[in-house]
Amino acid sequence: MMAPRIPDCPLAHAVARIGEWWTLELLHDAWEGHTHAAHFAESLRTPRDVLAERLATLVAGGLLRRVPCAAPGCDEDGTGADVPHDRYLLTDRGRGLRPLLLAMAAWVNQDLAPEERGLVLVDAATRQEAEPVLVDRRTGRRVDTAAYVLVPGPAASREMRARYEVIDSRREGPLRGDAGG
Q1: Domain count, the chain
Q2: Is 70 helix (H, G, I), strand (E, B) or coil?
Q3: Do 174 and 124 fall into the same domain?
Q4: Does a structural domain hold residue 41?
Q5: d(CA 146, CA 149)
Q6: Which of 63, 96, 161, 171 could form a disulfide with 58 if both were Cys (CB 3.0 to 4.6 A apart)?
Q7: What is the CATH number of the domain that holds 76?
Q8: Which residues pair with residue 129 across a beta bridge?
């Protein structure tokens, strides 16, 4: 994992943690219910040695957890073998990336005609296409507007604060501020 340019920048840390494109593909399959290496390998058409390395990376990064499954009957999801194997389960941190994936898919789909979209988010009950948005949990208001801005937090480094002094000086109106006090 490459170190972020500004050590306390959460955006840089997100990109560093996600890493390569395959991270989101593996997590997508985990969100869809895959738990066994055999299912990931089949779905993603990935050689098992490459897949093992990638799963280990996601486990080390705290996005998946590896659970040994050696007991007979541990085959409830149809792997077809009562032999020792591992299950890969999403952690809370891994599940927390799902809104990002959904937003990324919607971002790409907005540039495509409905008949050109390869994958769409729908309401499971109605099958109506959904349009994901990010909202403030407390107010329900969309945060992808100029009414919400990023500012240095209480633990911001001197470098982060200096960067946002410049950004704040360019902002107009009541949007200037500092959450760090």
Answers
A1: 3
A2: coil
A3: no
A4: yes
A5: 7
A6: 63
A7: 1.10.10.10
A8: 122
C-beta separation of 12 from 18 below 8 A: no
Q: Mean pLDDT over all residues of the chain?
A: 84
Spatial contact of 131 and 139, defined as CB atoms under 8 Å apart:
no
Query: Do 18 and 88 have their domain in common?
Result: yes
Q: Which domain holds residue 71?
A: 10-96
Concatenated DSSP letters for 18-33?
Answer: H-SHHHHHHHHHHHTT
Report the distance separating Cα 169 and Cα 109, nearest Å.
Answer: 35
pLDDT digits (tens, 9 = 90+) for 1-40: 556 677 788 888 788 778 788 888 999 999 999 999 999 9
Alpha-carbon distance 117 to 2, whole Å?
33
**Integer Cα distance of 160 and 158 in angstroms:** 6
The per-residue pLDDT for range 116-154, each reduced to its tens digit, is 999 999 999 999 999 899 999 999 999 999 899 999 999
Alpha helix segments (H runs only) across the chain:
10-18, 21-31, 37-44, 48-60, 92-95, 98-109, 158-170
Mean per-residue pLDDT for 78-106? Answer: 82
1: in domain: no
Sign, Cα dihedral of 14, 16, 20, 25 = negative
Q: Is the dihedral of CA 151, 156, 160, 162 positive or negative?
A: positive
Q: How far apart are CA 42 and CA 59, in angstroms?
A: 20
